[in-house]
Amino acid sequence: MLLHLLNRSPQSPSVYRDLGEAFGAGDHLLLIEDACYAALPPSSAVLEPFAGRVSVLREDLISRGLAERVSPDIAVVDMNGFLALTETHERCVSWF
């Protein structure tokens, strides 16, 4: 089980495609930094391959003014939630 950390905006579709190919059955995706824009309803279609296994970091949403606009299908986690995700997954992989 891997925790995938993604910081690229949905304007970088090749990263999302590559991530989709590497994403395993027990894996989870955490959107950080500019990847938060993928959590918005118009862009969230890019996350369909990861449905039910996607979270977004609250602090990064707030810093971008996006906290109230997240798709209801995506879990919002704070730094404690981020820590909990790292504890429940064997390794972390960063997609930059």
Summarize the structure.
The chain is of the alpha/beta class and 96 residues long. It has helices at 13-22, 58-63, 79-88, and strands at 2-6, 28-31, 54-57, 75-77, 91-95. The longest helix is centred in the N-terminal third of the chain and has 10 residues, at 13-22.
Q: What does the model show?
A:
With 96 residues, the chain is α/β, with parallel strands linked by helices. The chain has one domain: Hypothetical Protein Ychn, Chain: A. 27% of the residues lie in helices and 22% in strands. It has helices spanning 13-22, 58-63, 79-88; strands spanning 2-6, 28-31, 54-57, 75-77, 91-95. A five-stranded parallel β-sheet has the order 4-3-2-1-5. This is Sulfurtransferase TusB. It holds the Pfam family DsrH.
Walk me through the topology:
Elements: E1 2-6, H1 13-22, E2 28-31, E3 54-57, H2 58-63, E4 75-77, H3 79-88, E5 91-95
Parallel strand pairs: 1-2, 1-5, 2-3, 3-4
- Give the neighbour order of strands across the main sheet: 4-3-2-1-5
Helical fraction = 25-40%
How many domain modules?
1
- The CATH superfamily is DsrEFH-like
User: What is the CATH architecture assignment?
Assistant: 3-Layer(aba) Sandwich
Question: Into which percentage range does the β-strand content fall?
Answer: 15-25%
Q: Which fold name corresponds to the CATH topology?
A: Hypothetical Protein Ychn, Chain: A
Report the CATH C-level class. Alpha Beta
Number of helices: 3
Our measurement of the CA-to-CA distance between the termini, rounded to an integer number of angstroms, reads 20 Å
Spans of at least 5 consecutive residues whose pLDDT stays below 50 are none
Shape: globular
Strand segment tally: 5
Radius of gyration: 12 Å
Could you report the average pLDDT, rounded to the nearest whole number?
A: 95
H/E element string? EHEEHEHE
Largest sheet: 5 strands, parallel
Structural category = alpha/beta
Organism: Salinicola socius
GO cellular component, one term: sulfurtransferase complex
Pfam family, one: DsrH
Protein name: Sulfurtransferase TusB
